[in-house]
Amino acid sequence: MTTFKNIRLERDQALAVVSIDRPKAMNALNYDTLQELKVCFEQISGDHTLKVILLTGSGEKAFVAGADISYMRRMNAHEATEFAHLGHSVMMMIESAPQPVIAAVNGFALGGGCELTLACDIRIASTNAKFGQPEVNLGVIPGFGGSQRLPRLVGKGVASELLYTGDIIDSTEALRIGLVNRVVPQDKLMSTCKNIAEKICSKGPRAIQICKQTINNGCQMDIARASQYEAIQFGQCFASEDQTEGMTAFLEKRPPLFTGN
Ligand code: DAK
Predict the structure, then answer these.
(1) Are 17 and 122 part of one and the same domain?
(2) How many CB atoms are located within 10 Å of the residue 252 CB?
(3) Is 144 in the pocket of ligand 1 (CB under 6 A)?
């Protein structure tokens, strides 16, 4: 297994927990951290024994306080483009991982940190979490998809206000605008996320994979095409053993024994 310097990867049966671990810099994303995240997601997304991925930040203060400003300050235009490409590829890997990815947001999720949560399927925040896209304070715009994913999640008007003002919002406001699914006390954050993960793990793995694909790809289509796409994806489920087992188990009044095939 690869050893990482800036992130930690732990496995707990079908759950992978990825923690960004640069506490001195509030887990800010420099080039090496993004590179490690890329390698890490390449590994775990190809591991069929893993059914859910949990992404969090080390410590109690920050999920990720953004892209690393001291690293970015020295970049020229070419390096900035490269950095943005690397960031985008990490976000795309998270979004296209076959397993659902849950962001356990344990503190500041600013700039690139907020963008990282946006690439995840589900966001659970601790009460002390704070969100924002403060790039305009630094004279730039989001470089890891924030200007695209935030409006798709919370709507164009609310996203525009956050992106133009650079305002930092607390977890209550994040819940109100639909940026997070739930807010829980910090000492309950990991257990809440693990409970959700366990529930997902107990379902048909093929159905979960197909469902993630269908949500993410369908959201990019108009409703007519998206409905056709859903029909095709629905049909795919019927090529799986899990579908036969799930329906047979229901009719036989017993819990299903899913295999992921
Ligand atoms: N980068 C580097 N270091 C950071 C950091 C960051 N984003 N955030 C915090 N740190 C460091 C601080 O410099 C400090 O280091 P020392 O001074 O101890 O060496 C340490 O973490 C603790 O921070 P503070 O002393 O500031 O702690 P406070 O509790 O007082 O404040 C804070 C916490 C999170 C509110 C504050 O640190 C803060 O405002 N941080 C910056 C937040 C921010 O602006 N984040 C957005 C970054 S912009 C692009 C690619 C990417 C992006 C854009 C374009 N292209 C290639 C086009 C993305 C941009 C961003 O993410």
Answers:
(1) yes
(2) 9
(3) yes
Ligand 1 site, residue 116, Cβ cutoff 6 A: no
At 57, list the tokens: 């930040």
Atom of ligand 1 nearest to the CA of 111: 61
Residue nearest to atom 13 of ligand 1 (CA): 25
From first to last of its 261 residues, what are the pLDDT tens digits of the chain?
688 999 999 999 999 999 999 999 999 999 999 999 999 999 999 999 999 999 999 999 999 999 999 999 999 999 999 999 999 999 999 999 999 999 999 999 999 999 999 999 999 999 999 999 999 999 999 999 999 999 999 999 999 999 999 999 999 999 999 999 999 999 999 999 999 999 999 999 999 999 999 999 999 999 999 999 999 999 999 999 999 999 999 999 999 999 989
Say how far apart CA 163 and CA 111 lie, in whole Å.
10
Same domain, 108 and 211: no
Q: How many CB atoms lie within 10 A of CB 161?
A: 13
- Tell me if 84 CB under 6 Å of ligand 1: yes
Considering the domain architecture, whether residues 135 and 242 belong to the same structural domain is answered as: no
Residue 161 annotated in active site: no
